[in-house]
Design goal:
Layout: E1 2-9, H1 10-22, E2 28-33, E3 40-48, H2 53-63, E4 67-71, E5 89-93, E6 96-102
Antiparallel strand pairs: 1-3, 1-6, 2-3, 4-5
Helix pairs in contact: 1-2
Bound molecules: ligand 2BA.
Length: 109
Amino acid sequence: MKLVVAIVHSEDAGALVDALLEKEFRATRLSSSGGFLKQSNATIILGVDDAEVDEVVGIVRENCTSRTQVVNPMPPIMEPGEFFMPYPLEVEVGGATVFVLPVERFERL
Ligand code: 2BA
């Protein structure tokens, strides 16, 4: 068995969970936020048989799209008289960041 952990855009999470449930995969949606952008995203976790991992990753791929987000960099600590011009940066936030971990033990009690 494997634990699939998928970090996705909040806007994609609802459709992704619906698509997983449609194929009878059990999933848990957690609210999370990115360390870099500090914006909310969603983390979907699901325990699946080894043979189902590729299907699950395929469903994630179909339901998650990458987006470009604009970030305003933090101004540096400045000395009096120094000047900082903040240029917005464009960051590509991927469709999904997926980890597949081995599961040592799984029980539903
Ligand atoms: P964030 O940490 O908010 O990162 C958002 C996007 O910012 C990233 O998209 C990447 O394009 C860029 N980025 C992140 N760290 C950067 C850095 N140190 N320098 C320059 N650009 C940087 P993704 O790579 O698609 O990641 C989307 C979200 O997935 C991340 O949100 C984070 O929540 C999670 N994530 C990505 N890689 C991870 C990892 N190795 N471990 C844990 N979580 C990860």
